Amino acid sequence: MPTGKVKFFDENKGFGYITSDEGGDVYLAASALPAGVNTVRSGTRLEFSVVAGRRGAQALSVRLLNEPPSLVKMTRRPAEDMAIVVEDLIKLLDGVGAGLKRGRYPENSHSQKIAAMLRKVADDFDV
Fold this sequence. Notes:
By secondary structure, the protein is of the alpha+beta class. The protein has three helices and five strands, in the order βββββααα. The chain has helices at 71-75, 79-101, 108-125, and strands spanning 3-10, 15-20, 25-29, 45-53, 56-66. A five-stranded antiparallel beta sheet has the order 3-2-1-4-5, with no helix packed on it. The longest helix has 23 residues, at 79-101. The radius of gyration is 23 Å and the shape is elongated.
């Protein structure tokens, strides 16, 4: 089976192109991706079969060989630093929880800061 790297893939349009190791570009439809895979990143190595389609060479039976390292994963904070952030977040949420037990929500400005902090921490964990 031929191999190659994803040149680009547009999830919204549902297609992209593979640069084959044998030379040339191969059309990649979202329907050719493995079950449960909706998108692939540029640089991902693939193994695929090729058929002649109306757009030229078209990939079928695609199998992912490897994913390029995530930029987010490479640039996220070290685990030791995240441990400190999580400990501080727990202290903050304990204070909010105590207020909620007394029937009081935090003030609106404070609530917005807490929500923004939770989103940021969630983004740091989600890679």
